[in-house]
# Entry
Amino acid sequence: MYIGILGAWIAVFLTLSILSYLYEGNVFYKFAEHIFVGVSAAHWATIAFWNQVQPNLFGRLWPQAEVASLDGFQKFWYGIYHGLHVIFGKIFPEATFNGVLYRGIGDQPQNLSYLIAFVLGIFMLFRLIPKIGWLSRWSLAYVIGMAAGLRLYGYMSSDVIGQIHASMLPLWTGNIGSSINNIILIVGVLTGLFYFFFSVEHKGALKVVSRIGIYFLMVYFGASFGFAVMGRISLLIGRFNDLILYSGKEYGFATPILLVIMVVVLILTTRKGKSEEV
# Structure
């Protein structure tokens, strides 16, 4: 019960702190902003480590193996893993099944080529050390180059080619409604492309076509903006519903009490700032 009340008070405080930015930048907003950025960064870092780095990197460098079956280089290699387990604990787990000690994580086949990715990841952290920060450029170059190549291929195959294929529609389908829709779609695509054709001056018939393209783009941007605003408004309504819910006696009148306190503090800090300016 008390945990629920405490959570309600924290939720109300953070919500009102963010909304206080509508008045002006203040300590409440900055505090909530820092909390949001810090918690978000920690959350995504944790998710990325346990869902990506740990299984896809460490799980391939040290897949699960029975200790008694290791020999030669593998004993040395898994000895490194054991040292990491001693230092970091649960990040590099060891397990015992039926009295047999296992080391490693995941069930992927071992692939030591992932050492290259591991080294590049370490180089990325060197950016925090100015003297050897230049090593991070190798990692950035690899990431940017690889991402650009993969994204270009994916974008071309899924977006560009897919959009071209989706735009190849018959002008007459046997149904007046669908035929009109196809004509509008084709006209919008062609005129929108003509608007971004800058090799020739837009005058005469080309100016008329590009102007029609502008109208289609305006409709698209307006609809996209309206859709985005509706999504944000729905989130805002949800927050207001919570503020109303937490204003009751069962939550200790969290909303009105915190609202009054924050308004008083903002008024006092504003007056203090104006008096110092004078």
Notes: The longest helix spans residues 205-245.
